[in-house]
Design brief:
heterodimer; A: 449 residues; alpha/beta; Rossmann fold; 2 domains; 17% strand; B: alpha/beta; TIM Barrel; nine-stranded parallel beta sheet; 12 helices; aromatic amino acid biosynthesis (chain A)
Chain lengths: 449, 266
């Protein structure tokens, strides 16, 4: 059992983080640019504009004002004691990105990229979206700044997330259902790249996560790192110490990089990414890219991905549209390989158990994506035992998931939530009655150290 | 030294551009795709770009996507590609592999180079690999004596045109328009301007791809380029059920096009 310890600020590593990526966008062997030559000029322009903008006081001021007055930053940190009773006695703090305007962390990045679009003089933005949160955020920023907006969304996802499709259209965006391949996020990204290479003179691609070719992984991290910068200060302020672990769900990985970055130099703070294990990694029907994948090239960068022996991308599976992606941002692959962050799988069933639990114990309905991080906290809390302090990034709210959750729990005219398969039975190792401090024999119980 | 440069040079000696035909392996089946490639050669193609199926062909339009999707679902892999390479070489054209990067990386870069050379392949065209990221491929293609073709685009600045052409062996692939593969009514001036800009920085042959679909366009492009690359139009022959006969007829039409008004100076 790890005992919790105080990690004062002076113990931070001296190496100035971020020390990566390098000038050409590499995180060790990961990242880079694997793109058609036709896009290189646009990526170079974007990189130059971003580097100029991030040190421009007028931009910094404008961005800060938007975050404060439009998004509603800083987002609060909430302690969830009733939920924490199911986490082995650990204390659990939530970073409330669900309270941002538009309902998730996605707005942080989009406002930055929309300002950048205006700066480089383009009038049209395109975006890909999985759960629809990034699409809604992009449509929102486009409306705010008078840009024309087209969002590519897998046809399968337009069904799973119909509410967000309606929101995007209300905001004035054009939503194009993508009917190629697996009809999910991966294929939406392919279509967005095809649009971009065709219309690059007039159009900027507002990429939604820390994946893709350089400079997207860098740029999106810098726009999202506000989450961890705020949270680190907030936790220090209220607790006088740093958390023992920071947890976040990982699809492409933008909310996780956002909350991790400030803590990377804090060696004593464990960084834990929770990947979507779908039906279970062993079934092959999952989206746990680092846990179950291998290094390769997808969507413009080298990173872990789900692929077969021929190098074909394998379709991912998750109840969560926002995590249903066979790739992951290159910085996560790097953090994994250098051992600075750990990545664990969470099944659909475990995530939905946590989804129901947070809803009923705290009155907070999380996004199903974020519920993966909550499930990770339930398990890690039991491993670490009482007095452990966990910070969980609650990346989004669950309004968009009400229909999916109703189907999962079999809610119809019934008035009470059936907690779902496995919950409150002896079949689930993460069931809530385990006493504080007990280590739970889960899939990775042997990996704690 | 370079099988592609030799063949393109031979066409130039005849006062014409070379005809480069693209077809993906495994559509509609591996055998049928090899039969189609052979037919393309019989109809007059000098070079065959042998497409490696890939699940995420980000540079391709709907026609090639549809064909490649069939091959991906059938599990077509590099072993099938190497068979097609041997068949095209036996038919008398120069085989060059066209592949997105991940299938090559997954197969193993050195292994790919060794096996491709052994099968009689001239080299590879890599549409999503820029020379900046190509270190292992530059080394492996040197070691195996293979050609390597990178793309230039209308948006490439002069410094990149020069560096990319420098890294190429065989020819430089000029992507005529900003966009994905597919047939277009007109090829436009962008292609001619790009070829002229590329010629200003290199003596290597420059071939033009994206958008050419018939004999007239082949004739037009053949007047300023060393090679005319045709992809979607060939694939459409197969998608619309005209089979090897349709491919052979299209090749004949395009071969006539590149020979029309033979004004390309040597």
């Amino acid at each position: 059992m790890t005992t919790s310890a105080v990690h004062p600020p002076e113990q931070r590593l001296e190496s100035a983080h971020p020390a990566w990526p390098d000038d050409t966008g590499h995180f060790g062997v990961f990242g880079g640019r694997f793109v058609p030559e036709a896009l290189v000029a646009a990526l170079d322009d974007l990189t130059a504009a971003f580097e100029a903008m991030r040190v421009d006081p007028a931009f910094v001021e404008e961005f800060a004002a938007l975050q404060r007055d439009y998004t509603g930053r800083p987002s609060p940190v909430t302690e969830v004691s009733r939920f924490a009773e199911h986490c082995g006695g650990a204390r659990v703090l939530l970073k409330r990105e669900d309270l941002n305007h538009t309902g998730s962390h996605k707005i942080n990045n989009v406002l930055g990229q929309a300002l950048l679009t205006r700066r480089i003089g383009k009038q049209r933005v395109i975006a890909e979206t999985g759960a629809g949160q990034h699409g809604v955020a992009t449509a929102t920023a486009a409306a705010l700044m008078g840009l024309s907006c087209t969002v590519y969304m897998g046809e399968e996802d337009t069904r799973r997330q119909a509410l967000n499709v309606a929101r995007m259209r209300l905001l004035g965006a054009e939503v194009i259902p993508v009917t190629t391949g697996s009809r999910t996020l991966k294929d939406a990204i392919n279509e967005a790249f095809r649009d971009w290479v065709t219309n690059v003179e007039t159009t900027n691609y507002v990429f939604g996560t820390v994946a893709g070719p350089h400079p997207f992984p860098l740029m999106v991290r810098e726009f999202q790192r506000v989450i961890g910068d705020e949270a680190r200060a907030q936790v220090l302020e209220r607790e006088g110490r740093l958390p023992d672990a920071v947890l976040a769900c990982v699809g492409g990985g933008s909310n996780a990089i956002g909350v991790f970055t400030a803590f990377v130099p804090d060696e004593g703070v464990r960084l834990v990414g929770l990947e979507a294990a779908g039906d279970g990694v062993e079934t092959g029907r999952h989206a746990a890219t680092i846990t179950g994948g291998s290094p390769g090239v997808l969507h413009g960068a080298r990173s872990y991905l789900l692929q077969d022996d021929n190098g074909q991308t394998v379709e991912s599976h998750s109840i969560s549209a926002g995590l249903d992606y066979p790739g992951v941002g290159p910085e996560h692959s790097y953090l994994h390989d250098i051992g600075r962050a750990e990545y664990r799988p969470v099944t659909d069933a475990e995530a939905m158990e946590a989804f129901a639990l947070l809803s009923r114990t705290e009155g907070i309905i999380p996004a199903i994506e974020s519920a993966h991080a909550l499930a990770g906290a339930m398990r890690l809390g039991r491993e670490l035992g009482p007095d452990a302090l966990l910070l969980v990034n609650l990346s989004g709210r669950g309004d968009k998931d009400v229909e999916t959750a109703s189907r999962w729990f079999g809610l119809g005219d019934r008035t009470e939530v059936d907690p779902g398969p496995g919950m409150d039975t002896d079949q689930q190792p993460t069931e809530g009655a385990v006493t504080a401090g007990d280590a739970v024999p889960g899939q990775d119980a042997g990996s704690q150290s | 030294m370079s099988a592609l440069e030799d063949r393109i040079g031979a066409a130039r000696a005849e006062g014409r551009a070379a005809l480069v035909a693209y077809l993906p392996v495994g559509h509609p089946t591996v055998e049928d795709s090899i039969a189609a490639m052979t037919a393309a050669v019989e109809g007059g193609a000098d070079v065959v770009e042998i497409g490696v199926p890939y699940s995420d062909p980000g540079m391709d339009g709907p026609v090639i996507q549809q064909a490649v999707d069939v091959a991906v679902r059938a599990g077509v892999g590099m072993r099938d590609v190497l068979r097609a390479v041997e068949a095209v070489a036996a038919a008398g054209a120069v085989p060059v592999v066209m592949s997105y990067w991940n299938p090559i990386e997954r197969y193993g870069v050195e292994r790919f180079a060794t096996d491709l050379a052994a099968a009689g392949g001239a080299g590879a065209i890599t549409p999503d690999l820029i020379p900046d990221e190509a270190g292992p491929w530059l080394a492996a293609s040197d070691a195996a004596g293979l050609d390597r073709v990178f793309l230039v685009a209308p948006s490439s600045i002069d410094a990149r045109l020069r560096a990319t052409a420098e890294a190429c062996r065989g020819f430089v692939y000029a992507a005529s328009t900003m966009g994905v593969t597919g047939t277009r009514a007109t090829v436009g001036d962008a292609a001619e301007r790009l070829v002229a800009r590329t010629r200003a920085v290199t003596d290597k042959p420059v071939c033009v791809g994206l958008g050419v679909s018939d004999g007239d366009q082949a004739a037009e492009v053949g007047r300023f380029a060393d090679g005319v690359i045709v992809g979607s139009a060939y694939v459409r022959e197969l998608l619309e059920g005209r089979g090897p006969e349709g491919v052979r007829a299209l090749s004949a039409q395009l071969a006539e096009g590149v020979r029309r008004r033979s004004t390309v100076s040597p």
